[in-house]
From TrEMBL:
Gene3D superfamilies: 5'-nuclease. It is found in: Nucleus, Nucleolus. It comes from Aythya fuligula (Tufted duck). InterPro entries: Fcf1/UTP23, Fcf1_PIN, PIN-like_dom_sf, PIN_dom. The keyword rRNA processing applies. Part of the small subunit (SSU) processome, composed of more than 70 proteins and the RNA chaperone small nucleolar RNA (snoRNA) U3. SUPFAM superfamilies: PIN domain-like. The keyword Nucleus applies. Residues 21-47 are annotated as: Disordered. Part of the small subunit (SSU) processome, first precursor of the small eukaryotic ribosomal subunit. During the assembly of the SSU processome in the nucleolus, many ribosome biogenesis factors, an RNA chaperone and ribosomal proteins associate with the nascent pre-rRNA and work in concert to generate RNA folding, modifications, rearrangements and cleavage as well as targeted degradation of pre-ribosomal RNA by the RNA exosome. Belongs to the UTP23/FCF1 family. FCF1 subfamily. It comes from the Eukaryota. Keywords: Nucleus, Ribosome biogenesis, rRNA processing. This is rRNA-processing protein FCF1 homolog.
Length: 199
């Protein structure tokens, strides 16, 4: 008769000694978690609510006004080149006022990373008419940077064709979005008082 085969045990872990065990050296031993104080049910609970920006009058942003500062996204420059649109001139045609395109360090870094194929976009981004905005955070993910910037300072219009970024900015009240459609720039969520064309 042959040997009886043992059933193999899968995912069996070795037994480990507890970190609070008495046999472990006292310095290396884990301390017991401190007990939480019982909360008084009658005590008034404090919660932190984000302060409502003073520049907003309901959905109307009082900080917006000419000259308009427009935060430009990477893909907006690329799509403008495809549509053969001059950025500054087309922005002025859309808003009927002076526009200052602003480029953050993140957007510039993203365009530089795209390489030789997007050298025209890089040349446009380095235009002296564009205002450079320095970034203090780590990494070069432009979407988070733009969202954070318009949440803090509601004096910008965001120019993008990225659906995901548009969806995120629509949740922030008082921030208009500029996009490209029918070979021209259009604006969304802009108060009627300003000269933006409505379609």
């Amino acid at each position: 008769m042959g040997k009886q085969k043992k059933a193999r045990k899968y995912a069996v872990m070795k037994r480990m000694i507890s970190l609070r065990d008495q046999r472990i050296n006292e310095k290396e031993r884990a301390k017991a978690p401190a007990k939480k104080k019982e909360e008084d049910p009658s005590a008034i609970k404090e919660r932190e609510v984000p302060q409502h920006p003073s520049c907003l009058f309901f959905q109307y942003n009082t900080q917006l006004g000419p000259p308009y500062h427009i935060l430009v996204d990477t893909n907006f420059i690329n799509f403008s080149i495809k549509a053969k649109l001059d950025l500054v001139q087309s922005m002025m045609d859309c808003l009927y006022a002076k526009c200052i395109p602003c480029i953050t360090d993140c957007v510039m870094a993203e365009i530089e990373k795209l390489g030789q194929r997007y050298r025209v976009a890089l040349r446009i981004a380095k235009d002296p008419r564009f205002e450079r905005l320095p970034c203090m955070h780590k990494g070069t993910y432009a979407d988070d940077c733009l969202v954070q910037r318009v949440t803090q300072h509601k004096c910008y219009i965001v120019a993008t064709v990225d659906k995901e970024l548009k969806r995120r900015i629509r949740k922030i009240p008082g921030v208009p979005i500029m996009y490209i459609s029918r070979h021209r720039y259009n604006i969304e969520r802009m108060p009627d008082d300003y000269g933006a064309p409505r379609f």
